[in-house]
Design a protein that fits this description.
The chain has 215 residues and is an all-alpha fold. It contains 9 helices and no strands. The chain has a domain at 68-210: Tetracycline Repressor, domain 2. Helix content is 69%, strand content 0%. α4 runs parallel beside α7 (128-146), α6 (109-120) packs across α8 and α8 (160-181) packs antiparallel against α9 (192-210).
């Protein structure tokens, strides 16, 4: 998501409009999914005509692709320096998990888009999301290869794919599904105490899988 203003310069009107389109589209794609989101609805949310969107994005798939690039590019920018930073592999993995939870808490549409992508996936068709998550697979592969001879490396019995699915799946379900499953209880996953409880539970599981000492 493009933040309003930058430290170096003021955005042009065209840049502000493009950013507003991305913000509105991200919200609608997360709420309704790709199929049910219309360019007319995005335009109405921004306060422009539908034809104006085509000036910035050729069609709805192009707009959706730009939203995914923005969402998951933002996540990669947060996680990559943590995984490539200082500390043992286990310490960096734990810090990256916490960073992931913070990112989703600050941008819950991430969880909703992931859930919708999985639900809308069809056998024989590569989901658009796959293209935007390959960089994460490459990053993890690089980190694991670089740590292969590290005495403090993750235990050999830990499967990186399994660990990633546990972490990603639990947070996506917590943020995007639990409020729907518990509508009468006013479940608010982003309420500070609930979010910190989720973080504590997930990090505890990760530490045990990695053989790291408790916090």
């Amino acid at each position: 998501m493009v933040q309003a203003g930058t430290a170096s310069r003021t955005l042009t009107r065209a840049e502000r409009t493009r950013a507003s389109i991305l913000v509105a589209a991200e919200t609608l794609f997360a709420e309704r999914g790709f199929a049910e989101t219309r360019l007319e609805d995005v335009a109405a949310a921004v306060g422009i005509r539908r034809a104006s969107i085509v000036y910035y994005f050729a069609d709805k798939p192009a707009l959706y692709d730009a939203v995914l690039a923005d969402v998951f590019g933002g996540l990669l920018a947060r996680v990559e320096p943590v995984l490539l930073g200082a500390g043992t592999l286990a310490e960096r993995a734990i810090a990256a998990v916490s960073t992931w939870i913070d990112y989703v808490a600050g941008r819950p549409s991430t969880a909703r888009i992931l859930l919708r992508e999985v639900a809308d996936g069809r056998v024989g068709r590569e989901p658009p999301l796959v293209r935007h998550t390959r960089a994460f697979s490459a990053l993890i592969g690089h980190v694991l290869e670089a740590s292969a001879n590290d005495a403090s490396a993750v235990p050999s019995h830990v499967d990186a794919v399994h660990l990633a699915s546990v972490v990603t799946g639990s947070t996506v379900f917590f943020v995007a599904a639990m409020p729907v499953l518990l509508p009468g209880e006013g479940f608010e996953p982003l309420q500070r105490e609930r979010l910190e409880g989720h973080r504590s539970e997930v990090l505890d599981i990760v530490r045990r899988l990695l053989g790291a000492p408790p916090s």
